[in-house]
Design a protein that fits this description.
Layout lengths: L1 E11 L21 E10 L2 E7 L11 E4 L4 E4 L1 E3 L11 H8 L4 H6 L4 H10 L2 H17 L2 E7 L6 H16 L5 E8 L10 H18 L5 E6 L6 H13 L3 E6 L7 H7 L4 E4 L5 H8 L4 E4 L1 H6 L7 H6 L5 E2 L13 H12 L3 H8 L1 H5 L18 E4 L7 H4 L6 E6 L2 E2 L1
Parallel strand pairs: 1-4, 1-5, 6-7, 7-8, 8-9, 9-10, 10-11, 11-12, 12-13
Antiparallel strand pairs: 1-2, 2-3, 5-14, 14-15, 15-16
Helix pairs in contact: 4-5, 5-6, 6-7, 12-13
Bound molecules: N-(iminomethyl)-L-glutamic acid and fe (iii) ion (FE).
Length: 414
């Protein structure tokens, strides 16, 4: 089946070179390769060809043609950090925070991640799957075309396996590409508050072998943070995961300068995520690595914390990625469009930088750069068609308003 999209106002984030890009970094993030007045040809679920309308090939035929007058086409968002599998919302904590409690104080009272863990134990796998599938459909409708999802609300073997099995079932729906991260080290469960060694052993000796035996995880995640998992504990967990071939993608430097960036880089993490709290040493460490700094401004927004230093990281020639952190505690939204607006307004990223961070660099933060993240011949036909707009900058500018007309996944409208 050949589908032609014609008269596209701008075809954005194209890749035309023989050599494939792995990500975009530093100054290069300011540029978005694009074609004005373009056509795009899709064969089944793949990008077959594209070009300028002025050079439209005479003999090109298609089964259907869709006119995109005034509209922009760009790759779908690659959301490389989410906790989309959870059982209940936590708006009571949101109200507690409005009334003065901090995220950490709520966690110390047994709220936060522990609250979600309690609810996780009461819900059946089927009910959890149904809720998660609904959320997945919702984020796809907002333009997300690939996603990473973490466990981390189980905090015991049965709960973690339940979450990871749900993620596996979501993968099997074949909606969009999904990567799973194993995050048993999200917080110490109550039973192990005074026995950290016992919980580390449980993760390393009981959970990891089962998770890997069932092929349930692509990555290992640890919340490396003061009051959660320290650097030595993170080191042990990442070393153990490495023996099973699980690469790290970790939570680092959210609340404090935790040493998370350095330990992630030591273990060749695919990405280190959050990064609200960064010094020159962390930046220098990332410069010596292939690890992608992933910023989650939705969490900073929702917790009313300071934003991540995007400019500092881009100016240090790093390949910054953006993701939602969709979770019931610190960012109850999986809307990547809003994340782009926050990146521009709060972190002073340009619209071009934000789009690079949310497409190619997000794909790289899930090792999907060879199939997603740009409009390239042979890549998967996952793209967004916007409503007619005056310019591309209108997309992050018009925050709160959906500028998406259609989302195309595997060549089909969804
Ligand atoms: O990325 N910081 C750790 N984990 C999540 C929040 C989880 C929660 O509050 O439920 C985050 O912000
Ligand atoms: Fe997170």
């Amino acid at each position: 089946m050949l589908t032609l999209y014609s008269n596209i106002k701008q075809l954005v984030q194209i890749e035309d070179n023989h050599e494939q890009k792995i990500h975009v970094k530093g100054n290069d993030m300011k540029y978005l390769p694009l074609l004005n007045d373009a056509w795009l040809l899709i064969e089944d679920d793949c990008i077959k060809d594209f070009g300028a309308m002025s050079e439209f090939p005479e003999h090109l035929t298609s089964d259907q043609t869709i006119d995109c007058e005034g509209q922009y086409i760009l790759p779908t968002w690659c959301d490389s950090h989410t906790h989309l599998v959870f059982s209940h919302s936590r708006e009571h904590e949101f109200v507690d925070r409005i009334q003065g409690l901090s995220y950490e104080q709520i966690a110390q009272k047994g709220g936060g991640i522990l609250n979600s863990a309690n609810r996780m134990h009461d819900i059946s796998e089927d009910a959890l799957f149904d809720l998660s599938l609904q959320r997945l459909h919702q984020v796809i409708s907002m333009g997300t075309g690939a996603i990473e999802i973490k466990s981390g609300y189980g905090l015991n073997t049965a709960g973690e396996l339940k979450m990871l099995r749900v993620i596996k079932r979501l993968k099997e729906q074949n909606l969009i590409p999904i990567k799973a991260s194993f995050l048993a080290a999200h917080t110490y469960p109550i039973a192990y508050r005074e026995n950290h060694e016992g919980y580390l052993k449980l993760i390393i000796e009981e959970m990891l072998p089962q998770v890997c035996d069932e092929g349930l995880a692509d990555y290992m995640d640890v919340f490396c943070e003061k009051g959660f998992f320290n650097v030595d504990e993170t080191d042990r967990l990442l070393t153990a995961a490495g023996r099973y071939g699980l690469k790290p993608k970790i939570h680092a430097n959210q609340l404090y300068n935790s040493g998370g960036v350095q330990i992630g880089v030591k273990h060749q993490a695919i990405s280190v995520d959050h990064l609200e709290t960064m010094d020159d040493a962390e930046v220098a460490c990332l410069q010596q690595s292939d690890t992608i700094p992933t910023l989650l401004p939705g969490a900073a927004f929702f917790l009313a914390m300071h934003y991540q230093p995007a400019r500092k990281l881009i100016d240090a020639n790093l390949p910054v990625a953006l993701a939602t952190d969709y979770n019931p505690g610190s960012c109850p939204s999986g809307n990547m469009n809003f994340i782009l607006s926050l990146a521009c307004t709060q972190m002073r990223m340009t619209p071009e930088e934000a789009i690079n961070a949310a497409t190619l660099n997000g794909a790289a933060a899930m090792e999907y750069q060879h199939q997603l993240g740009s409009i390239r011949r042979g890549k998967r036909a996952n793209f967004i068609i916007t409503k007619p707009m005056s310019s591309l900058a209108y997309l992050p500018y018009a925050f709160g308003e959906s500028m998406i007309d259609k989302v195309i996944i595997n060549g089909k409208r969804c």
